[in-house]
Structures are given as structure tokens and as C-alpha cells.
Amino acid sequence: MAHTLKIPAATELKFKKIGLIQPFDFVLHLPIRYEDETKIIKIAELEIGQTAQIEGEIIFAEISFRPRKSLICQLKDETGIIFLRFLNIYPSQEKQLGRGKKVRILGEVREGYYGLEMIHPKCHISNENIQLKQSLTPIYPTTAGLSQSTLRKYILVALKQVKLNDTLKESIKSQLKLEDFASSVETLHNPKPDENRSALLERSHPAWKRIKFDELLAQQLSMRKHYQKRQNKTAPVLLEMKLLTEKLLKILPFELTEAQRKVWKEIKNDLLKTHPMQRLLQGDVGSGKTIVAALAALQSIENSYQVALMAPTEILAEQHYIKLREWLKPLGISPVWLTGSLKKKEKNAAIEQIALGKTQLAIGTHALFQASVTFNKLGLIIVDEQHKFGVQQRLALREKGKDTDTQFEPHQLMMSATPIPRTLAMSYYADLDVSVIDQLPPGRTPVITKLINEKRRQEVTEKVRQACLKKQQAYWVCPLIDESETLQLQTAIETRAALENQLPELSIGLVHGKLDNAEKAKVMAEFKAGQIQLLVATTVIEVGVDVPNASLMVIEHAERMGLAQLHQLRGRVGRGAAESMCVLLFQQPLSQLARARLKVIYESTDGFEIAQQDMQLRGPGELLGARQSGVPMLRFADLNEDAALLEVAQKLADELLKNDPETATAHLQRWMANKPDFLNA
Hints:
Layout: H1 2-5, H2 9-17, H3 23-27, E1 33-35, E2 51-64, E3 70-77, E4 80-87, H4 91-96, E5 102-108, E6 110-111, E7 116-119, E8 122-125, E9 137-139, H5 148-161, H6 170-176, H7 181-189, H8 197-202, H9 206-231, H10 244-251, H11 258-271, E10 278-283, H12 289-302, E11 306-310, H13 314-328, E12 336-338, H14 344-356, E13 361-364, E14 378-384, H15 391-400, E15 411-416, H16 422-428, E16 433-437, E17 447-453, H17 457-469, E18 473-477, H18 485-502, E19 508-511, H19 517-528, E20 534-537, E21 550-555, H20 563-570, E22 580-586, H21 592-603, H22 607-618, H23 620-624, H24 643-659, H25 661-672
Parallel strand pairs: 4-7, 10-15, 10-16, 11-13, 11-14, 12-13, 14-15, 17-22, 18-20, 18-21, 19-20, 21-22
Antiparallel strand pairs: 1-9, 2-3, 2-5, 3-4, 5-8, 6-7
Helix pairs in contact: 7-9, 9-24, 9-25, 11-12, 21-22, 24-25
């Protein structure tokens, strides 16, 4: 771009900051709003809140020093007078805005102390040579030191340089009622005065529809191409031998639900194929994903292949380790535990067992993909809470499983207890096969949710006392404050001390992320055994903790937490036969977003409904978590507003890849020319 436009080096760096590198990036740097410099409004016709262009004569100009230095002017036309206030004034501006000068002003009309006013409006000396603009003036997203006039200059040059030929055939545009690409771009950069202003701002204009559709189509084509690419890779065929899987099902103290059987069948069939499985297993809190993962692991082990199970936190990895060890020990399988906090001797012993192939199942955190860890024969990777890992972390683990002799890649099963809204799954997970456990096991009791003001804290403490005296157990969760683990830990310690003072008859434990592995395991074991009645915890207990006798949870400062986290925490209770309750303690004043979140969690226990509401409140970015590292976020389309467009784009992507690969390639080249290869994940 620099060669064609001769951009000064300093300006080029600023352009790079906002992602403007190739000429086409400038073409797609679309306005966030517009100013109307196509007409002059009379002062008498101005309305408060309106951004308008006026013209007249300065009849008063004076420097004021209170409360800060500013230039106060009065502008008069034939219909009235308006005040103008200019801050940070230079001598040249004082001269330009002197009494008797004729000026053209553009700004927002406000209610001032003495009547209508504009603060720091845009200003031109008025003369006969200034023509009114023929189109609305675009205002672009920018960065410090990059002016609107500089942006407009280079965008204009790019629009002349880049061939905006249509990547879609006339038959497709006609069928889908889409505008031409070139005219859509032109309309958005230089809309005529009679264009529908509100449709442009709300992004519902036909020109916006075309840009959004093209973006969604490019994303779908990328994801589907990656899906096809995976079909051409080779993976070990893991035959269904039913030796260990059948044994496990016989010794389990429960029956699989229909939903678990359905997803197990889908996974089982994938493992029989010659290309790598890449399946996302979704299930609400407590739906029983771990047993399905255990069955998949056993199918790999039956075929003499190793399995790696990775979780984002030590407490979750440890819960998997304890549960799987309990299930698999009777089958003669002893999982190995590998995390960063292990002592050097234990860690080296675990790494050696994995490398020699003596370990059939390795469970741990990101320690599993460190350079020192090598697998002897890895057949299956299971990643829990996969959205909490970055793309590079998941890739590193998969690379470890590549067999240099056979070129095999391991199968991958990704699990998520944060249900993913349908449009999000269609958009960002279109490269995966998705299985959903949409049924809870029998015996799970519905959890009653209560919203209680912090001022009634004493009542809540009494409720905890009564529950524990009835031989039940409770959690008291402290939130993450200011993203500081130190502050969170301090809060948890102080909360425990206060509760011990108020509830001396109870045994109160404490668990947090800074405890070492052995201490954490000891506290959790004591809580599970009923020796600890009340567990004060930080949000480390968000996932994976399973204590059926715990029937009450108190969450402090619930207004500070996200919906997914509140839903996950609430899922720690209601796992036994006793009626369970989750108390959300909140502090006022509540922000509008906090109020909306608490309303959703209070009214719904359906994880998919909560996730959908969460996406509407926050957008898809935060729901995707670390997955977005390397995945192109949508710039123009909105998954809530444009779900119908996404469905059409998905169908067309499949159609083009099958019947018109040339069009698919041309479209992808336009939209993904300078994007990184995010599709390896």
C-alpha cells in the first residue's frame, strides 16, 4: 500500500494500528456515522441534539478565563443568534473568528446558559467559493494522531485504485436480492443526501446488507474449507472392541441417559474413521460429559493408543483425575497426573511414563504441551472448557500427537459446559462437528435462585447455619475483584474469618487458586467427606466440582460476574436429592447491564437460553473466550441481528465449494488476503 499511495512512514504506522495495510483494507474501512454538509440550516430551525451546518456573521467574540480559557462567540443569521464556545484556542483561530467575520459552522446544538450553543464546532471562513458538499461526510473509526481528512484522502485514492468487481454472479445476487458490491461500497463511503440516514446508521441499509453478507460468506467458506482439509488428513482408526467400554458401563452406579447414548454413538463412529475427529461436545452443567469422554478414552486405549485430557485449571484437571481414576482403576488403568505445580521428581516420573508409553491416560493442565513432554503413541486428545485455551495451546498439543512415521494426527474431542448459541456455533464453530447432551441425568433437583440485597447479609448467614445443622453442606463464593488474584484471595480469607466468628459451631474450609495441589486436594476431600460443612471459595470451583450433599450456594457480589460464570457456579449445587438453593448477594447501585444479567439468571436455568441472552448482552467476543485468538471476529455482521443472513451464507458456501470453486476462491481471496491462517485450530 505504501508504494502505491506514498504514505509517510509515521502515518503508515498509524494506519497499521487500525488494521489498514492492503488497499482493500482501506476500501472496507467503513464509516461509523455521517455529518451532513450538503445544506445550510437556519438558526431559527435548529433543534437541541441535532448536528447541523449553519452560516452567518460573528457579532461578538471575547476570550473568557473562567472556568478555563475559551473563546465565546455569537453567530447571527437572518433568523436568529447562537452562542459558540471554543476551547484550546490558538491566536490564528482568534483572528479567524473575529467580529464581522462570515463563517460556516458544523456542530451539535446544545441548551446553553444563555440559549442555544455549539461547543468547539467545525469551522470554515465563508465565501462564495465554498461549494456545499454533494454527499454526506463520512466519519471513520480512527486512532490518536490520524485525522479524518487524512483517512478520507487515502480511502478516496484506494477506492479509485482497487477494482471492485463483483465476486458473486448476477444469478446469485438476483436470487438473494443483493446490491452490487461496488455500488454498496460507494454508497457507504459517499452516501447521497437523500439516502435513508437512520438505515445507514443502524446498518440495515441494502448497502450494509451486501457487505455483511459478503463477510459472513467469506467466514463460512474459510471454515468449510478447513473442514474439508481435515477430511484429507489421516488419523488412527480406533475400532470398537467393547472390551473396556462394556466393562465400565457394567460397573457404573448409574445408567447413561438417552442424550448421552446419542452423543457417544456420534463420537464412537468418528473414531472409526480414517480422518481426525474434531468434535465439540456441548452439555449444560451436570449433564454428564465426563462419562462420555471416559468412554471415548477407553476406545482409544483398547486400540493401544494413548489419551491426553487437558483442562484449564488445576482444580478442574484434578476433579477429572479423581473421577476417572475411580472409574478406571477396576479396569486396570491408572491415569497419570501432570501439572505445573508438581514437584520436579514427580513431574519427571510422569513425563517418562508418558514418553515410554506406559501411561495410557495423561490428565493435566497446559503442562501437557510443554516441550519436555512427548507422547509415545497419542490417539485421542480431550480438551475440557476448550474456549479457555488459546489457539496456539491447542495446536501445540495436537502437534505432539503427530506420528512422523505414519503421518497420523490424533482425534480431538473438545468439551464445553458453556452452551453455545446456535448462531455462534454456525459461525465460529462451522469447522467442527457438534454433539449436544440436551438432557440432565435423573435425580438432579431444580435449583431455586434468590436475589438478596447485601444489606440482608445476616439473614443469609442464618440460612447457611440452618442448612448445615440439617447435615447439608454449603459453598460461599467470593468474586474476582479488579482482576486481582491477591485481592480475591484476601477477600476469601477475610470472609472465612468473619463467618467463623458468626458461625462458631460450623467447620469452615477455604479453597483458592494459590493453594498448592496437595492442600487443595485435602480441603476438597474433607468437604466431599462431610468433615467441612461450609466451603469458602474463590471462583476456582466454577467447574468440575461434584459434591452431592452441597445444597446451598451463596455468591457474593453477583452483580460483578458474567452470566456463564454465575450459571456454572450455580451448577455446583442441586446434585443430590435435597432441595437446593443459590443465593445471589448483590450491592446497589446496579448498572443496567448487571440488572439485566441478574434478571436472566433469576428467571432461567436453561444453559442454552442463558448463553443466548448472554450473547445479546455482551456480543460473541467474550463468549468465544480465548478461541478468538486467531479467529477473525466479524467486523460488520452481528450474529443477533443477522442470523437469517448467516443461514443463507452457510447454504451458499456449501453450494459454491461443491459446484463453483472458482467463485469461492475469488471471494475468499478478496476477504482473507492479509488474514493469518487461523484455520489450523
